[in-house]
Amino acid sequence: MQGNIVVSEDEKWNAVISCNKYYDGLFYYAVKTTGIFCRPSCKAKTPLKENILFFNSVDDAMKEGFRPCKLCRPDIKEHNFEPNRELI
């Protein structure tokens, strides 16, 4: 899902805490304390709200010095990335 959809900060935060896959590709969030950025649907531990930054693209997050999460792999363009697919 891509496009010129505007998502409010509160809506982004709610997507992060609910791991909502619907928002994948619309924005990414980075955690200041870990230096990692994720997709909204990432199943990693939910960070504290004051420790996150939102980005519109993978490139924007990487330009700010954040690295991709190894769990949700936001750097992979595949929209439906499933890390456990190979195990099945």
Put the structure in a nutshell.
By secondary structure, this protein is α+β, with helices and mostly antiparallel strands. The chain is 17% helix and 15% strand. The chain has a domain at 9-68: DNA Methylphosphotriester Repair Domain (3-Layer(aba) Sandwich), CATH 3.40.10.
What oligomeric arrangement do these chains adopt? single chain
Label the structural class: alpha+beta
Distance between the termini: 26 Å
Characterize the overall form.
globular
| Helix and strand sequence | HEEEHE
Assigned CATH superfamily of the domain at 9-68: DNA Methylphosphotriester Repair Domain
- Mean of the pLDDT scores? 89
- CATH fold category name of the domain at 9-68: DNA Methylphosphotriester Repair Domain
Write the layout of secondary structure elements.
Elements: H1 9-17, E1 28-31, E2 36-38, E3 52-55, H2 58-63, E4 67-68
Parallel strand pairs: 2-4
Antiparallel strand pairs: 1-2, 1-3
What this model shows, in words?
The mean pLDDT is 89. The protein is 17% helix and 15% strand. The protein has a 4-stranded mixed sheet. It has a domain at 9-68: 3-Layer(aba) Sandwich (DNA Methylphosphotriester Repair Domain), CATH 3.40.10. With 88 residues, the chain is an alpha+beta fold.
List keywords for this structure.
88 residues, alpha+beta, four-stranded mixed β-sheet, 2 helices, 4 strands
